[in-house]
Amino acid sequence: MNALTDAVARLTTTVPPDAPPSARPPAGAALAVRAPGFDGAAAAGLRALPSNEAPDGLPMNTDTHHDLASVTKVAATTTALMRLVSTGDAGLDTPVRHYVPRFTGGAKDDVTVRDLLLHRGGLWEWWPLYVAATGRDDALRRAAELPLRYAPRTGRHYSDLGFMLLGQVVEAAAGTDLSGAVAALVTGPLGMTGTRYGHPAGAEVATSSPGDGVEITMLDTGTPHPVPHRSADFRGWRRGPVTGRPNDGNAHHALGGVSGHAGLFAPPADLITLAAALADHTRHEDLWDPRTAEEFFAPGPDAGQSLGFRRYELRVGPERLPLLGHPGFTGCAVGFVPGRGIALALATNRLLTPGAPVPTDALWAEARAVAGRVAHDSARPQR
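Request: output the structure for the sequence above.
Response:
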C-alpha cells in the first residue's frame, strides 16, 4: 500500500513526463488497483479548493464521488450493450436507424451499432447542442438529424454524438429510459450502489472545474471542432465551481444529466468493481455471454480501439498485456486486463487547478505504470 499511497501523492504534486512542462498537477487524486494478491486504494490532495466555507479546502478520499465524463461511454453504454447483445435484444450489425428512426437518410442508413462503437460512423466529433436545443428530446433529435461529417467506415473519428445515439439504442433495446436501463443491466447487478446519472449518490463529491470555461473557449476559437457557434450564442454558462452536476455541457445543459456519452457519477470503489468484473468476464455468465464480451474486447480496425473500449498496454514485469478501458475529460479513467484479474480506476479533478491542467492521458499513463508495478510485485513469491 505504501507504493500506491506514494504514487497518488506524486500525482498531485508533480507533472508526469508525458505532460507539457507548463501543466499543473490536479488538486486531488484517487487510485484503486486490484490484481492477484493485491486490492488497495489511496487518495491525496483536495476534492475542493479553499473557500470561505472551507479555508483549507476539502480533502480527497477514496470514497469521494466523481464526475466520470467520458468514462460513462464504457461504464454505462458499452457495458449495457454487451448485455443486450448477449441476450439478443440488440445487434452489433443492426443499422442504428432500427433503434433511432430519426437517424436516417443517405449514408446514415447503413451505419450500424458496431460502427458507432468503433467511432467509425462518420459523425461529428462534438457539437454544442445546448446552444439551440429547447430540451432533452430536441437535443437528441438534433444529434440524430445532424449531417454526417465523414463517410462512414473510412476512419476513426472519436465522437460524443455517436455515443449519444448509442444511449438511445440502449433505451430502445431495453425498453426503458437510459438511467433505468443502466441500473438494471450494469450497476444494479454489480452492486454499484454509489453510481448514478446526473448527480452523485453521496454527499462527498469532487469539484470538477471552476466553471464552463473550457467549452466557452472551444466555441470562441473553433478549436478543436469548427462549429458555427460562439459563446455569446448561449446564456446559460456556469461561471462558478461545478460540483455535483455533469461538467460536460451537452450532458448538463441539453440532456438533463443523462446521456450515452457522459453524465455518470461514481466513487473509485464502484469503478474498480466494474473493472474487476470485466477482467474476470468468464465468471459472470449471468451478466454476459463470454463470447460476446470477447468480441467487444477484440482489437478493431483502428489502433487503440475495440468495441466501445480504448486499448492500452500494461507492463507487468517483462509482460506487455492489453489493457482495455476509457479516459474521461475531467481526469478519471478505468481499465482492466481480460482474463488476468487486473483492474484499476483513476479519479482526479484535473480541471480544478488554476493554469493548464495535466492531460488525462498523461495521468492515466502514470496510473497504468503504478498498476503494472503493483501487479508484478504482488505476483512475486514472498520470502
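The mean pLDDT is 96.
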